[in-house]
Amino acid sequence: MAMHERLSFYAKRDSILHRLNPLTKLTLVFGFVLISFFAPFYWTPHLLILSGVIPLSFTGKVAREYFNASLRLILPAAGFLFIMQALFQPLEGEELFRIGFLHPTKESVMFAFANAMRIFLMVSSFTLFLLTTHPSELMSDLTRRGLPGQFAYVIISTIQILPQMQAKAQTIISAQRSRGLDTQSSFLKRAGSLIPLVGPLVFGSLVEVEERAIAIEARGFTSTKTKTSLHEIPDTNSDKMIRWILAALVLISLALRLWLS
Fold first, then answer.
1. Closest-CA residue to 6 (of 166, 118, 143)
2. What is the pTM of this model?
3. Which residues contact 148 (CB under 8 A, 6 or more apart)?
């Protein structure tokens, strides 16, 4: 696997979802999120996950990576949010049980479950976007549409920061193991091994920031001249139609909420 692919969540596949324009996929993410918050129906985020995100993960041939991220990252975070809000959200209603000062109600549990599903939908949609969109394609398409290069660079750097830190941390761990550092024994010994790992990781990241700043300046990043690209990002009529449909669905969801409120 190439280095630039290891430093992102992108999973190279030949799928319909991969071939969509990056802006279309970004619109899909924001469309799902806004509809889940605007729609006045309780089960909207749940249906979007079951009928939207999960089928799209199979369409994009990244179901294994998506479910792996969901089980290891998204589900625990959403579950923690659900527990905290269900137990400590002070909503009046039918009390389910009482343990000391904890007395969750049916309303607080329903409220917490809805919020947890919205968070799950938001993060899983963005995860699907990262798995099917190469950062360089996103940056090229955004700058082609008129977004200033500085803003595009901030977006791409934010997307890449986690995989870059993971790759650097793995390199440092392998180097420290070769020097005899114990990183696989008991919890206490592994906790004591964090200090020799954190130092190189932090300082290495600072050096990398400086090197990247020099590299992008050498490539004329701040130049005001019109930039061209060897790789053109297609924007088909289907892409435009999908974006218009998503925008219409968001407006319909907002109108329904205002009408029914």
1. 166
2. 0.74
3. none
